[in-house]
């Protein structure tokens, strides 16, 4: 039925798409296309990897990789309270971190609570988005379902297709990778540690951010992780026969610090993990030579080196242009609105680690206000100027490849900026869930401390609440 509300297309029913639907459900007519048969995006765990994808994998057909990037025993590195959206607190749990099954359950409950599935067309791929005219319903969205294609027209298109599925492999400083005869993997295809790629093997782990660190822990402590998940008593003594990999060589600038942290020192002392830094890796048929000339024999290389942005359904370069080998795209205003056509909107692309949910929900509130007509964007020239300034700052300080995942001190500035924009429109940012935020801010100093001491895993496995002094004071303005 035609109404006078704007007609909005949402691409993807992962966490971001669901939050968009929740916010827009009363002010817009909505259609969400989701290529899978269920909601939840990345949090729908499947064993499938790029090596064994099914022929009818709709994501693979479009992107050339499977969508799945999470592993069997993944628990969130950030605590439950960081994962909650406004108006929907997570159920109380004994443990303070979600397993991936619990994240999915939270998302399913969220969707049911706000009755969101009625907007979703499942098993439907968006294959092309084009700008046709400059009038109303000027976006043409071509979709494919069951082999049939159709076109629909919309006033707004909101892209929520995720950004953690198309693996990035570094090339700079890497030589001879094609000579290497062993197994080459990316974290994207890591599912579990007890496979022939790791058991009794020398593994080179390249990249040690959250995922790299967690995968390292999986390789070293898989039995303990299972025990914790099953509510059993873990046994933290080193039992070398229980360790899958023979030796794990770490290649990252933080490798040495990490090997000296409480979490990993015992393994470094025994030579089970070997830290290496330096900006060059030269591969041979069965090994790697480091910048300092030292050499290690290796069987498996696991790149935990992040992901690329990919929007295969947008072909017009004025809408999406990539830089830094797919790790930057634009031009967007405030990392949300296409500067050339602001009714094309991207949500949930920045990665702020601990604050993804707060950041993404603020983007959604901003976008809602724009669609409602309550918030006018600056002129195209002003938006471009804002972007260029922002790009220059990130490029000079962190490298453009980090534009969508800059360090905390920068990202918190972006989150604050979103808050100021919302406040200028008398919109209450997603801060009114006071009880959650209270817990969250109490944890921040401990979170920061564990991160800087490379004991992030400890933080993930233990009950942090006992670490927070009763009289701890917090001030949210310090962060956002
Ligand atoms: C190992 C790992 C651990 C992580 N841990 C955390 C964590 O602890 N906390 C956290 O906040 N984040 C974490 N993340 C980040 C994760 O990306 C986000 O939590 C979240 O899944 C992003 O939601 P999204 O909806 O933007 O994207 P996704 O979850 O990727 O969902 C995108 C959806 O869009 C659909 N889609 C894509 N293209 C099309 C198309 N053309 N047509 C129709 N549908 C389409 C997909 O099928 C999918 O359902 C982790 C990521 C990884 C890889």
Automatic annotation (TrEMBL):
Its cofactor is FAD. Keywords: FAD, Flavoprotein, NADP, Oxidoreductase. GO terms for molecular function: flavin adenine dinucleotide binding; N,N-dimethylaniline monooxygenase activity; NADP binding. The keyword Metal-binding does not apply. It comes from Euplotes crassus. Belongs to the FMO family. InterPro entries: FAD/NAD-bd_sf (IPR036188), Flavin_mOase (IPR000960), Flavin_mOase-like (IPR020946), FMO-like (IPR050346). Gene3D superfamilies: FAD/NAD(P)-binding domain. The keyword Glycosyltransferase does not apply. This is Flavin-containing monooxygenase.
